[in-house]
Design goal:
It is built from six helices and four strands, in the order ααβααβαββα. It is an alpha+beta fold and 150 residues long. It has one domain: Glutaredoxin (3-Layer(aba) Sandwich), CATH 3.40.30. Strands 2-1-3-4 form a four-stranded mixed β-sheet, with helices on both faces. A hairpin with a 5-residue loop joins strand 3 and strand 4.
Length: 150
């Protein structure tokens, strides 16, 4: 019985492909990667240490296995964070980049704000605040937008 259990575990884990997608912070690199891999970009504006809906969005949707699995094959992820606590302050260059991204894509200063862009940085769709949908509905919304913009 132990041998069968061990074999079953080996088969299960050998067919498991780990998700390698992570949230990056360099928008220029994200555009290059999206162009090279024919992917779209999800850019999320968050306040990681002060914005409750931002924290919830990452915990319940953006860092969820289903979303990251979809993103691994189809998206390049960029987080533009705007922390307030001194201990979490970003490097000056990173803060300047995030400010430029906010000027271009988040001029109203919404938090959270999630935008879907093509590889050229063209805005295709945005979600202001915490989306009133499940993780599966959020992924389907992205898929529909991606399909209509290929």
């Amino acid at each position: 019985m132990r041998i069968l259990s061990a074999i079953a575990l080996c088969v299960l884990f050998s067919s498991f492909t780990p998700v390698t997608t992570t949230w990056g912070t360099n928008f220029d690199k994200a555009k290059q990667q999206a162009a090279a891999e024919h992917k779209f970009i999800v850019l999320n504006f968050s306040g990681s240490d002060w914005c409750g809906p931002c924290i919830r969005l990452h915990k319940e949707i953006l860092d969820g296995d289903a979303f990251l699995s979809y993103a691994d094959k189809n998206l390049v992820l960029v987080n533009a964070d705007f922390p307030r606590q001194k201990k979490n302050q970003l490097a000056k260059a990173q803060q300047q980049q995030n400010d430029k991204l906010a000027d271009r894509y988040n001029s109203k200063g919404d938090f959270p704000l999630t935008v879907l862009l093509n590889a050229d940085g063209k805005l295709l769709k945005q979600w202001e605040g915490y989306p009133k949908m499940s993780i599966d509905e959020f992924i389907a919304d992205i898929k529909n937008t991606v399909e209509s913009n290929k």
